[in-house]
Structures are given as C-alpha cells and as structure tokens.
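TA notes, week 10

Several of you asked for a full example with nothing omitted. So below is the full record: structure tokens for the whole chain, then the designed sequence directly under it. When grading your own attempts, check the secondary structure regions first.
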C-alpha cells in the first residue's frame, strides 16, 4: 500500500499489512503513526518529504527511510506492553526515541 502526497490531520493506525506493505511518499502525519499489527511483522518505508510528528510502536515494526527521504520524524516511542518477542527496527533519523 502506498500513500502518496497525503496530509493526515489525525492519527494513522496500521493494524495490517506485511513485511513489504506500507510506503509513505511526500506524506504528512500530523498526529501519531501507530504500528499495531498483532503479529509484529510490519515494514513502513518513508520516502521523499514525509513528515511524521510521532511514531508509536505497539507491536513489532521495521521503520526505514528510502534513499530519497528528506522529511523528518520527531519522536519514536516504544509503547508499554509491546511483546518482547517482537522486533522494532528504526532506520530513520528521529529527534527523540523513548
């Protein structure tokens, strides 16, 4: 799934998808990007001028930037209660990681 040139005024909650599923291209998420796929097998790729205020990992996620990524990620938070069997991989520049 690709969101291209989208301005999301609220939260973007990702409950599905797979290891190659979500691409955000020149997209702004003004609320939270919540990774919440039950099995923890989720990949989100940021491309172009994508800006995200907050990422909340409630489950496993591979968050990465493409070579053309020029946007920003303000905060990444690993939520309390995230399963210890889930892997969270951050390959994006983030101002703060909690």
């Amino acid at each position: 799934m690709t969101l291209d040139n989208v301005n999301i005024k609220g939260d973007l909650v990702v409950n599905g998808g797979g290891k190659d599923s979500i691409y955000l291209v020149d997209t702004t998420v003004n609320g939270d990007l919540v990774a919440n796929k039950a099995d923890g097998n989720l990949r989100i790729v940021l491309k172009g001028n994508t800006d995200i205020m907050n990422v909340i990992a409630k489950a496993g996620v591979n968050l990465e930037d493409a070579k053309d990524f020029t946007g920003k990620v303000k905060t990444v938070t690993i939520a309390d209660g995230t399963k210890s069997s889930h892997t969270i991989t951050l390959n994006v520049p983030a101002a703060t990681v909690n």
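Residues 22 and 96 are 23 Å apart (CA to CA). Use that as a sanity check on your answer.
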